[in-house]
Amino acid sequence: MLITLDSKPVGTLELSSLDESGLERKQLRLLELLAALVNYVLFYAHARRRSSSWISQALGHALAEVRCENRLTQQQLAETLSQSRVTISRWEAGSQPPSLGVLLKWCRSLGVLSAKRNAIVAVADVLPQLLKLLKQDPTRISQISPEQFEWLVADRLDRMGFDVQLTGATRRKDGGIDLIAVPKVRTAASFLLAAQVKHHLGRQKTGREAVDRILAWKDSDFRLALLVTNTEFTEDAKWVAALSGNRAFLRLRDFEDLRRWLEDNFTYEGDWREIPQYITLAPGITVEIPKPRLVLPR
Q1: Coil, helix or strand for 143?
Q2: 295 lies in some domain
């Protein structure tokens, strides 16, 4: 939903859900926040007067719940906004209503209000609407928000056969991991996958910094890592990922891979390009790696 003030766009509140049956509790909480935010803008900004206390309290309570959902303390939020913790406490209690400019920064710091004006999905279920749009024109991936891109990658991994869990709000500190996944069919060969998702508005390439960040999780509980971007990777990033000590752990997937995934094509040979054709088990003993059976997309 596009939020405007004096007919000028100030941000877009975006809701996405992987659940076709409806919005989850977290999404409903954001809808409550939207109602409180609209009320605040109408009474405080448009009317050019202080809002009534209950409107300020409703907004502060809604934003406090989102902060807690994102596992942020008042002190952490205060540092992001260059405010004191006491000020944050007063805002959340509704005793000191913030100005509109500070309010917008507050919402953006919590990751619920996007500064983008050209978001192509406002309130939508990522499955029937966002996917339909991107399948028609995959190049529009650059126009969606980082949050929507995370939902897109999560949905594609779900279609590949993974149970997927997003780690939290896109702008929250997460150690470089945006989502985790495990195979839906649990067997003795099950493993834990970590994924980092890098979205760019233009043609900027994803560089070595993102690769190094997720490689920090090598030799941890995660047995495999996936780094997905909607553009391309720099040569330096690809070089680091291809090193013998990293190749078995990290998978780099770019726009061309996403284009196939949008077509429900998950069995392209390139998707197992990091797996060697042969492996040497002992001197003179080399075994051929079993080749996956190709399933052509319908």
Answers
A1: helix
A2: no
Segments forming the whole domain that contains residue 248: 127-288
Q: Are residues 236 and 209 in the same domain?
A: yes
* pTM to 2 decimal places: 0.58
3-class secondary structure, 252? strand
Residues 79 and 191 in one domain: no
> Do residues 225 and 251 touch, judged by C-beta distance below 8 A?
yes
Distance CA 212, CA 78 (A): 29
Segment 60-78, tens digit of pLDDT: 888 888 888 778 899 988 8
Helix 208-215 × helix 235-242 angle, to 10°: 30
pLDDT at 149 over 60: yes
Domain count within the chain: 2
The three-state DSSP-derived secondary structure of 185-198 is: CCCCCCCCEEEEEE
Which is nearest to 257 in space by CA: 269, 248, 242? 269
